[in-house]
Amino acid sequence: MSIKLNSGHEMPLVGFGCWKLENKIAADQVYDAIKTGYRLFDEAQDYGNEKEVGDGIKHAIDDGLTSREELFITSKLWNSYHDPKNVELALDRILSDLKLEYLDLFLIHFPIAQKFVSFDEKYPPGFYCGDGGNFHFENIPLLDTWHAMEKLVEKGKVKSIGISNFNGSLIYDLLRGAKIPPAVLQIEHHPYLQQERLIEWVQSQGIAVTAYSSFGPLSFVELENKKAIDAPKLFEHDTIKRIAANHGKTCAQVLLRWSTQRNIAVIPKSSKQERAIENLEVNKFNLTDDDIKEIKKLDKGLRFNDPWDWNHIPVFI
C-alpha cells in the first residue's frame, strides 16, 4: 500500500526507519530489510550512518534484490545547513554518502537554523555550533531555506520535498510563499501524542503525514529521556494489550495499524527479522471503531522529542 503525494509520486505506507541503526551493522540490516520487502528507507544527515545505509542499498541493488526505481529513499536537511548557499552542499554530501543520484524525499529536519559548521570541522555536527556545547543560531527565514529546497526539485536531485517537526502555524505561513507545497509532514505520533487537529488540517491541504516514534517512549528510554523513562510503556499498556489479543496481533502491529488505517505512513525499525516482517504486514487487518475510540483516550499530549529540552527553543510552545 502507498500514499499518492501531491508531487505525483507514490510513497509506501510502511517503511524502515534508520534512526539509531548502529554503523557496524547498518548495511546488513538495510540489505536484510530490502530482502524482506521494505522499499522505503527513512534517513537523515543527523543519524550519522548514511554511508553504511548506502552500502546496504548498493549491495541489494547489485545483487538484484531491487532496483533504484523501486526504492523510496528519504533524508533530511540538518539544522546547520539552512542557509540557502548550504542547502545543495548538504544534499550533495547526503547523495555521496548514500551513493545515489537523487532522493525521493528531502525534508527540513527541524524549523531551526543553527550556526553553520563545515563538513571538515564536524560531520554530522549534531548540536555542535563551533563553541563547545553552546547553541548558536543564524537568522535564516524558513521560506529562504524552502526556496533552496525547491531548486533541488527543479534540478532533478530530489523528487519531492517536505518538512519535519513543524507546527501548524509554521506550515500555514510556509504555504503562503511556497512555489512547491510540502509533499510530506513527518511528526512524532503515538497514542500519547496524537495531534489530531494538526493531522486533520495538514491532510486537508493535500500534505501526507509520516509518523515517527510510533511506539512512544520506547525510542527515547535509551537516550535517558526522563519523560520516556517515567511514561507507561505502550507495549505493556492494558488497552493496547487487550486490542492486540482481540485481533491475534502484537502490540507493535496494533500501534502501527492505528496510524496506517488513517493513511498515516509509519517508519518502524527492528533488528529482529520476525519483527520486521510483522511490521511490514500491519495492513492485513483492521482495527474496529471501538478500538480507535479506546486508543484515543490515551492521548496525554506527551512529547518526547522537544527542542525546548535542548536549549529552550520554542518550536511547540
Task: Characterise the protein shown here.
The chain is an alpha/beta fold. The chain has a single domain, classed as NADP-dependent oxidoreductase domain (TIM Barrel). The protein is 39% helix and 14% strand. It has helices spanning 23-36, 50-62, 84-98, 142-154, 168-177, 196-204, 218-221, 226-230, 238-247, 251-260, 273-280, 289-296, 308-311; strands at residues 2-4, 10-12, 16-17, 40-42, 72-77, 103-108, 158-164, 184-188, 208-212, 264-266. The strands form two sheets. An eight-stranded parallel sheet has the order 3-4-5-6-7-8-9-10. It has a two-stranded antiparallel ribbon with strand order 1-2. The radius of gyration is 19 Å and the shape is globular. The mean pLDDT is 96.
Looking at this protein, list some descriptive labels.
39% helix; AKR; alpha/beta; 317 residues; Aldo/ket_reductase_CS; globular; carbohydrate metabolism
DSSP summary, beta strand count: 10
H and E string: EEEHEHEHEHEHEHEHHHHEHHH
CATH topology: TIM Barrel
What CATH architecture label applies? Alpha-Beta Barrel
Uncertain regions spanning at least 5 consecutive residues: none
What level of helicity do the residues show? 25-40%
Characterize the main sheet: 8 strands, parallel
Question: What is the radius of gyration?
Answer: 19 Å
What's the quick description here?
This protein is an alpha/beta fold. 39% of the residues lie in helices and 14% in strands. It has one domain (2-303): TIM Barrel (Alpha-Beta Barrel).
List the helices and strands and how they pair.
Elements: E1 2-4, E2 10-12, E3 16-17, H1 23-36, E4 40-42, H2 50-62, E5 72-77, H3 84-98, E6 103-108, H4 142-154, E7 158-164, H5 168-177, E8 184-188, H6 196-204, E9 208-212, H7 218-221, H8 226-230, H9 238-247, H10 251-260, E10 264-266, H11 273-280, H12 289-296, H13 308-311
Parallel strand pairs: 3-4, 4-5, 5-6, 6-7, 7-8, 8-9, 9-10
Antiparallel strand pairs: 1-2
Helix pairs in contact: 1-2, 2-3, 3-4, 9-10
